[in-house]
């Protein structure tokens, strides 16, 4: 009976730690999110031509955004060094890294051509699925900076990789290494995960990821579908995004997917 009580107490402590981290993430996102502009009809979108732009994963840098203080210091998170108390605290968080994820243009193009999209997904991908010229180009994303035809220059994104201490780290490129178009910046942010082997490095792989995308263009809706359909029913999520039910804001829709996990302990 004492063992069961201890397990329940530990579960409650883990849940409290999760809620605390989640609250800090929400506060940070609310403070750092750029102002959004009205969402345009996806049917007005069109592709843009250009040559393929590629970036090597080692070019990415992870920057602390202040959330490392929730549990441990940023130095402890980056190097794996810390006090015994900090190491004990980490057991409240997931320790198994996410599986390696690496997507490319050819796979994305094949996905768009062969996947049986729902009607909602096809609505969001209008101007992409029915454009054979775009699907045959070396890159599926606009490659020039500034305003582009598919309005992907108005899209915003934030991606955080969560370490074993529960601290989210913002993933971004240095200004000098950013590709010319906003769409390519977003694509290169979401297409790779844990592609670098850190076994001989002090840097840790991510055990979680938080992706925030605002006003994605049709081609970016496709990229989200391609990179996440193995893990979520993205067609169902898109259906809810387009559904007139549950929202009175006809000019703007936002979708939050929250997964809650509960544990049951028995003898």
TrEMBL record:
Residues 30-51 have a biased composition (Low complexity). Residues 30-59, 71-90 are annotated as: Disordered. This is Uncharacterized protein. It comes from Gnomoniopsis smithogilvyi.
């Amino acid at each position: 009976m004492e063992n069961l009580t201890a397990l329940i107490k530990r579960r409650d402590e883990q849940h409290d730690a999760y809620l605390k981290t989640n609250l800090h993430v929400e506060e940070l996102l609310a403070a750092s999110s750029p102002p959004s502009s009205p969402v345009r009809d996806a049917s007005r979108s069109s592709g843009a031509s250009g040559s393929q732009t590629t970036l090597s994963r080692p070019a990415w840098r992870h920057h602390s955004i202040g959330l490392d203080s929730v549990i441990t210091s940023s130095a402890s998170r980056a190097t794996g060094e810390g006090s015994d108390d900090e190491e004990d605290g980490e057991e409240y968080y997931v320790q198994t890294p996410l599986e390696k994820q690496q997507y490319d243009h050819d796979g994305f193009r094949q996905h768009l051509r062969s996947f049986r999209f729902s009607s909602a997904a096809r609505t969001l991908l209008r101007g992409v699925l029915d454009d054979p010229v775009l699907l045959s180009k070396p890159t599926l994303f606009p490659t020039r900076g500034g305003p582009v035809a598919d309005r992907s220059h108005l899209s915003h994104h934030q991606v955080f990789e969560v370490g074993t201490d529960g601290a989210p780290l913002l993933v971004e490129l240095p200004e000098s290494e950013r590709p010319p178009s906003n769409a390519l910046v977003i694509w290169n942010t979401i297409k790779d995960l844990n592609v670098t082997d850190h076994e001989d490095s002090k840097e840790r792989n991510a055990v979680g990821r938080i992706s925030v995308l605002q006003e994605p263009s049709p081609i970016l809706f496709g990229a989200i579908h391609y990179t996440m359909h193995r893990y979520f029913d993205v067609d169902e999520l898109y259906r809810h995004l387009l559904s007139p039910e549950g929202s009175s804001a006809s000019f703007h829709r936002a979708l939050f997917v929250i997964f809650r996990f509960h544990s049951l302990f028995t003898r």
